[in-house]
Design a protein that fits this description.
By secondary structure, this protein is of the alpha+beta class. It has a single domain (about 45-210), classed as DNA methylase specificity domains (Adenine-n6-DNA-methyltransferase TaqI, Chain A, domain 2). The protein contains 7 helices and 12 strands. A 5-stranded mixed β-sheet has the order 4-11-8-9-6. A hairpin with a 7-residue loop joins β8 and β9. α1 (about 5-35) packs across α4 and α1 runs antiparallel to α7. The longest helix is centred in the N-terminal third of the chain and has 34 residues, at about 5-35.
Length: about 240
């Protein structure tokens, strides 16, 4: 085989791999959407939904603005004009520099961050230390990507956070945020160069609120269907 043929073959293989990755990404999103809609776990009757990105949900499921079932928050950046606030930095601090790690939705729980802040910095700013299990959503720059805190962490102002109450579990909220990403980007994100989802729109986000046993069942069903997709992705 002459060199030009090898190059052409390599390009064809790379193109096929890209197409397969796109198909797998689409299938992944479809699993998330079907899962949080109850289509993977419930075969009974369905009712109309007041959730913009979800036309129907199983009869008996509730819905609510996310802020009413999980404590909503955000983050902040301590002033760089005070170098003493950036000494002895030990608190994990999620910034836009971390988004690349969960951009493909494979990572569900973030345990380490690229940057940290100090307790003095937190004390002298609007930064907040959120508890383990808090769900975060990037709302500027890389808009719409989400993950769960694997430890107590703070975030920059580029994120919205939700600390789950007794009605929802973190994994279910995470899957809802990932399933609604298309809606977040198409309906709520603003800006032509750097898109942003503003806090008033964040506060209006609605999700389905099934009974807790149903939420755990949904999470298990989604994971079971994503596992073979991720295995195929790893082979590409």
């Amino acid at each position: 085989m002459i060199p030009d043929d090898r190059a052409a073959t390599g390009q064809a293989v790379a193109g096929t791999q890209r197409k397969l990755r796109l198909l797998l990404e689409e299938r992944r999103l479809a699993v998330l959407e079907a899962g949080v809609a109850g289509q993977l776990t419930h075969n009974g009757s369905r009712s109309g939904s007041d959730i913009p990105w979800l036309p129907t949900i199983p009869t008996g499921w509730a819905s609510a603005q996310l802020k009413y079932v999980a404590r909503q928050g955000t983050g902040h950046t301590p002033s760089r004009k005070h170098p003493e606030w950036w000494v002895d930095c030990t608190i994990p601090w999620i910034t836009t520099g971390d988004v690349h790690r969960f951009r493909d939705d494979r990572l569900e729980v973030l345990f380490e961050t690229e940057e940290k802040i100090s307790r003095l910095g937190v004390a002298n700013s609007s930064a907040v230390i959120h508890p383990k299990g808090t769900v975060v959503l990037s709302r500027t720059a890389s808009v719409g990507f989400s993950v769960i805190m694997g430890a107590a962490m703070a975030t920059s102002q580029d994120f919205a956070t939700w600390t789950c109450g007794p009605r929802v579990i973190s994994e279910f909220v995470l899957y809802c945020l990932r399933a609604m990403r298309r809606d977040l980007l198409e309906r709520l994100a603003q800006g032509s160069t750097h898109q942003t989802i503003y806090m008033p729109d964040i506060q209006r986000i609605r999700i389905p609120v099934p009974p807790l046993p149903d939420q755990r069942q949904v999470v298990a069903a989604i994971r079971a269907q994503l596992l073979p997709l991720d295995r195929v992705t790893d082979l590409l």
